[in-house]
Structure formats: C-alpha cells, structure tokens
Amino acid sequence: VLAGVVTGVALLSVWHQARPTWRQLDQGYDTYSAYSPSARRSAPITGAGFPAVVGDLFRFASSNLQRGDRIYFQVPRTKYGTLDLHDTIGELGRYYFLPAVEVDSLDDATVVFSYNADPAKLRRRFVGQLRFGPSTLSRIAFP
Amino acid sequence: MTGHILLLCVSNVLMLAVGAGLLPVLQLAETPHELLVRLPLAYAVGIAATGVLAANLALVDVSVGRVGLPLLAAGSLAFGLPRLDRHPRTTTRTRPPWQLAPALALLLVTAAYLVNAARLFAVKPLIENDSWALWGTRARALYEFGHPVAPVFTEGWYPALQYPLFLPALEAIDFRFFGAVDGTTIHLQELGLAAAFVAAAWTLLRGHAESVLLAAALLAIVAAPMFFRQLQANHADIPVALLLALGVAALAAWLRSGERGLLPAATLFLAAGALTKNEGEVFVSAAFVAAFAVAQRTQRRPLARALLATVACVAPWHIWLIAHDVTATTFSLSHLLHPHYLTSHWFRVVSAQHQLFAHIQLASNTSRLSLVAAVGFGCALALGSFRLTAFGAAWLVLSFGGLLCVYWASSQPLHPDLNYSADRTIDTLLVGGVLLVPVLIGTARRARDA
Fold first, then answer.
1. Distances (CA, A) of B278 to B64, B88, B274, B408
2. Which parts of chain B register pLDDT below 70?
3. CA dist B253 to A105, B181, B244, B289, B449, Å?
4. Looking at this predicted complex, what is its ipTM?
5. Of B266, B319, B256, nearest in space to B447 by CA
6. Testing the interface with B: which of A25, A72, A96 to mutate, by most B Cβ within 10 A?
7. Cβ–Cβ gap A24/B140 under 8 Å
8. Looking at CB atoms within 10 Å, which of B45, B262, B341, B380 has the fewest?
9. pTM assigned to the model
C-alpha cells in the first residue's frame, strides 16, 4: 500500500506539470526551428540585446584574427541594460574570437577590437586597420 | 546540421562501446547475456568514463577525438569482453513480461518526452548567457587548443576558473568529430546524457526497486519543468544532478545488498559528478560521509577504496589549479575558518536557506518532486528501512548544509548570486532525493518479505 501511495504521489507530480512541460518543448521548437543558420550563430549576440548586424561585425572581426592572436577590448565602460557595455562585448568576444584570447594589457596585445571607441586615442602604431560599423579591428603585430 | 547530428551519434555509439567494455571490468556484467541486457547502462557508464578520462587527459595536453575515442572504445572492448564468462552455470529468473507492462508504459511516456525534446534540442542555439559565455567558451577553448590554455582557464577575466572539465571535455570531443564548433547540435549531447540517465537508472536499480515506482520516479523527474528548461540551456546543473543521483542511488542499493558492481558503478558516477561542477564535490563528500556513517564494518574497507578512487579522479584537476596558480574563484572555503567572517556574514546563510527552500517547493519549476521525496522517505521509515533512510536523509541534509556553506563563503554579492543560481543548485537534491525513493521502498519491502 505504501509503495502504491508513493507511486501515486509521483504520478501526481507528473500530472501536475506534464502538459506545461510538453507545451514548453513544442513552443521552443516552434521558436528556434524558424531561425536561419546565421541567426543561430548570432544567437548569443541577439540574445544579449544587440541587433543582428552586430553578429555580422563579430563574424567579420573573427575572420580577420589568427591563431595566437592576443586581443585587447577597447570599449567604453558605459551602462548596457543592467550590465556594462565593456564587459558584455568582452564576454561575446571571448567566445567568438577563440582561438584568439583576451589580454588585459594593451602591451601584451597583437590586436585591438574597438567598439564605440576611437583606436587613435590609444596612441599606438598599427600595421593594419579594418572598420565595420561602430567597430575597428586594429593590428599591432602578428602572432 | 544533419551531418553533425550523425557525427554526434557516431561519437555517442563509441562512448556506448567504451561503456560496454567497462561493464565486465566493473563487475556489472559477467556473461554475454548480461552484457546484452545491461547495454542501456553501458551508455551512461561510457559517457561518464569518457568524460572523466577526457577531462584528465586534457590536463596533459592529450585530446580525445576522431582517433582517440575509437581507440578508447577498442581498448575497452578488448580489455572487457574476454572477462565475460561464456559458459555460465546459473541462469537468472526474470519476471513475466506482463508484470512489467505498467512500468514499461511509463517508460514509453518518458521516452516520448525525450524524443520531443530532441526535436527542440536539434534546433536550439546557444542563447542563455552561461551556455556560451561559460560552458561554450571552455568547450570551444578545449576544442581549439586540446588543453586548458592560459589565459582562458587561468585568468580572472574568464569565468568560473575553478569549474572542472567534465562537460567541456565531453563537448570538445563532439566538436572534434564535427571538425567545427556547432552551438546548436551540441545540445543533443546533453539530451544524450538525460537518455543515458533514464536507461541506466532503470537497468541498474530495477532489481532493487518496485518497477512501477522506479518508472514513475523517472517520469516525474523528466516531466518536471526545470528538467528540460535547464538542460536546453547547456548548463551543468542537470548533468551534475543526473550523475550524482545515479551514484547515490547505486550507493544506497549497495549499502543494502552488497551486490557486486553497484559500488564500482556508484564510484564512477560520483567521480563524474564531482568533475562536472564544484557543487558536485560537495554532494559527493556528503554521500561518502553519510555512507560511512551507516555502513556495516565489512563495508567500510570497500567504501574507503571507492572514496580513494573518486579522489584520484578529481585530484589532477586540483593539482593543475594549484600548479597554475589559479586563485580567482567565486568562493573561498578558507572564509569558513574565520569566526569573525562567519558571524558577520551569518545573514547570508539565513537568506540562502530561505531562498533554496522556496525554490525546492516552487511547483512551477520543480513540480511536486519535493513531495515525492518527502512522502517516499516517510513511507520507507514506516516500512522499517531505518539504515538506508538515514543514509538518504543524511546525504540530503549534508548536501543542503554544504550548499549553504558555499553561499556563506562566496565573495559574490548575495542576492544577485541567489537569484541567478538558487533554482539550479537545488537540482541535485531533488533528482537525487526522488531517485533514492524507489531504492529505499524496494529494499524495505524486500527486507520485510525476507
């Protein structure tokens, strides 16, 4: 009898949320199956609240980085939602720009990724520079 | 994407082969027939063993991929299969199939949930913050470099440096099979872990539990809203919960029956859980403390060996952290040695305890899992299963206490930390508590029948 009672409580737990859980899976499928391959790749960026074009920007920058690159993020520390713009761009860059890795000092960097910031203010000589919308990828050295 | 799904299937079939080779080694199968019957368990054993091995090999710059995993599978089969007894003298009696029909019906519903989830997981991108910023970055770095490279795993501007490598190492294996990082298909690896959990729990615990209750408990876990919601977020909390629940339930069954194979299985799953997330180490420590407390004298030596084996699996990661001077962690256990810190931060314990309890009882997230565990433990007591219920209760209380200590010692601001994590850190307590119930009830009934 006691085993039956526990089985009943377990089935009650199933009954209580089985349908919402099933619906949640269906709704998730309906939402994400509509994504294009490009939208899936940019999902962390759009999910962080940036427009889709910023996804193109990260892909563009990423295609111009090399293995061994050490990247410095020049991004103003302004408020971004409940977060900080510098930290949010840094977080996205740390994921998208691998195998390039982030460094916290300009002296250690081979590349500077500037977003809403002017790389000239860093007073460095760059061997190459690429602009894309609000961002600039400036190369200091090759790895 | 279809190509990646097929390659993911290939890597998981190879993990299944690793597990199949290990079943005889771990004394979980002694004859070819047993091996065949216990193949569903082999998948979970294979994932756990591959993950533990890959996480530790990564520390010495050996990456497991398209070459390493087939070699591992072949080695495991070559080592394990000759150990099978091809001329068994005894045959095991099995229950008539019609007795299993209600349980199998519940398992079919569980399978339907997993299939429906597979549809979603095959198209879901990495979107939740931790899924890419933490776990995705670590898996991608292991894929790119083959080892925990600096500064990704050593410098404070990268997240969660103290988290061990089980999950990133497992996902990096899949990326190596794809030949690329695929943030969508990788969700199916987490679903594979969920399927392995259901199959392993059924295969491993069926002999120690009422089959209908076991199947109902598994369905209750899978149908709880938090289960797929968190699993699809590529977080490690549900994987820790699944591995720990298997380990603790197997440990409970071994404490009662002493059956061969249960302790090695428990050790493997506990070691994998401890290597998945730092909370896993807390839960594993609690499991061993509780087990030692209720173990009979003859069980203490094998239990000590199991503890040593678990420590041996986890120690390399901690040695690596010390050797690379990784000190930027989100909590410092040394805080717990300072009376002034403890008294001045007591409010953290009170708040954490309130919020964790609130989440445990939140039906919209956890359904009625806490009620299942509470009623189950109560019924086990009523049936006279004092020793095992004491083990289960001690594990839950110690684990909960361990969680409170982590929040107490944390250097993060309390409320954002709790708001962000409290609904996930309780997963192991709920999943483990519910999976223990069929074992407690089953062993109590068996003792009464005997």
1. 23, 43, 7, 15
2. 89-97, 328-333, 363, 444-450
3. 55, 40, 14, 16, 17
4. 0.93
5. B256
6. A25
7. no
8. B341
9. 0.94
